[in-house]
Write a structure and sequence with these properties.
alpha+beta, Four Helix Bundle (Hemerythrin (Met), subunit A), 2 domains, 5-stranded mixed beta sheet, 10 helices, 5 strands, Serine protease K12H4.7 isoform X1, glycoprotein, AB_hydrolase_fold
Length: 240
């Protein structure tokens, strides 16, 4: 599943003033075949079109220009939205957005792993071993039940059932991506020390690192339920 966790902003502007709505959007797109053509055919794109129509209806256009802007994966969404709806979106600003779709972006986590390795050579090795143990346990319902308890998932894991399996594994790796992206000098060394200084097996060390970061770990079903609708917060802007 392609999930865009960035901020996609929708900006509408008038001719003689900057007056419009900015919409914060977090949007999930179900998988199609991994090609640019089928990417654009997803019915979920309709929610973006509907959002534009809400702010700038075709039968009563309030604004002279519609701009979408985003960074990272939301930057991809902004660029694709302009290609998909050129008659509704005038400008797209895409910062660091991968434009060619594929099932995975391994280069991203390769950079994360290298950053952690520079902080502590043994840190990414521990994470790899723990992830391998988790993947093996997910092969059975019994192992999945143990992981649910160990990592405090919000709902019981479904074992090898996809996409529940992949979503859970992503939940174990994404905290390290977050800390690499936002780290100040010395932060990665401190985070690796916090992970490696935990007691127990590699998997138990990982669980003790992750559990304090959130109340419970979502399952894919909870994620899908929450993001089944586009969540938007409108902010009014005026400038004379």
């Amino acid at each position: 599943m392609w999930v865009f966790f960035g901020s996609l902003f929708l900006l509408t502007t008038g001719t003689f003033s900057v007056e419009g709505e900015i919409s914060f959007m977090r949007h999930g797109i179900p998988p199609a075949r991994e090609t640019d053509e089928t990417r654009a055919s997803s019915p979920e794109w309709g929610t973006i079109s509907q959002r534009v129509d809400h702010f700038n209806p075709a039968d009563n256009r309030m604004w002279d220009m519609v701009v979408v802007a985003g960074s990272s994966y939301a930057g991809s969404l902004a660029a694709w939205a302009r290609i998909k709806y050129p008659h509704k979106i005038d400008i797209a600003y895409s910062s660091s957005g991968p434009l060619h779709t594929k099932a995975d972006f391994p280069e991203y986590f390769a950079a994360v792993e290298e950053s952690l390795r520079l902080a502590s050579p043994t840190c990414p090795q521990l994470i790899r071993r723990a992830m391998a143990d988790a993947m093996k346990m997910l092969e059975t319902r019994e192992g999945a039940a143990t992981l649910s308890e160990l990592f405090n998932t919000c709902e019981p894991l479904k074992g090898p059932v996809e996409p529940d399996r992949s979503y859970f594994l992503t939940s174990l790796s994404s905290p390290f991506a977050d800390v690499v992206q936002t780290a100040d000098p010395g932060d990665l060394v401190a985070e690796c020390e916090r992970l490696e200084n935990n007691t127990g097996s590699d998997l138990e060390k990982l669980a003790k690192y992750i559990k304090p970061l959130q109340y419970c770990i979502w399952t894919y079903d909870l994620f899908k339920e929450y993001y089944s609708e586009t969540h938007a917060i409108g902010v009014r802007m005026r400038s004379k």
